[in-house]
Write a structure and sequence with these properties.
Helices cover 0% and strands 43% of the residues. With 112 residues, it is an all-beta fold. The chain has one domain: Immunoglobulins (Immunoglobulin-like, Sandwich).
């Protein structure tokens, strides 16, 4: 799931976006957010396990961009965000959302 934080700044500044994923049996030790914003490096963005068995991580992202991402477990298993439509070929499914200049996701890319 993706949460876009309200911004009191102008539309040209970065927007805070929180990624969250329910903890599952396959990701009990660690979970990484992997995507375009980290050049698909599989170990840069380690998520934090919070209360309620949910992994979370907040990033500041540029508005006006489409972001592709997935989650990776410590043992290398890839997981899709169940709350966001997947894009790509059936062999390379990735989740995607488009952050508009107003700091909101485009409705065609993000399901709530």
């Amino acid at each position: 799931m993706i949460t876009i934080h309200e911004s009191t700044h102008n539309a040209s500044e970065k927007v805070r976006v929180t990624f969250s994923m329910p903890a599952a049996q396959e990701c009990s030790d660690a979970l990484y957010l992997v995507g375009w914003f980290g050049e698909w490096d599989e170990a840069v963005y380690r998520m934090e396990r919070g209360s309620g068995d949910t992994w979370t991580l907040t990033l500041e992202l540029e508005p006006g961009c489409q972001y592709l991402y997935r989650y990776r477990t410590l043992n290398g298993q890839w997981l899709n965000d169940p709350a966001v439509p997947a894009t790509g070929s059936p062999l390379e499914l990735k989740n995607s959302f488009f952050l508009t200049n107003q700091g909101k996701p485009a409705s065609s890319q993000l399901a709530h």
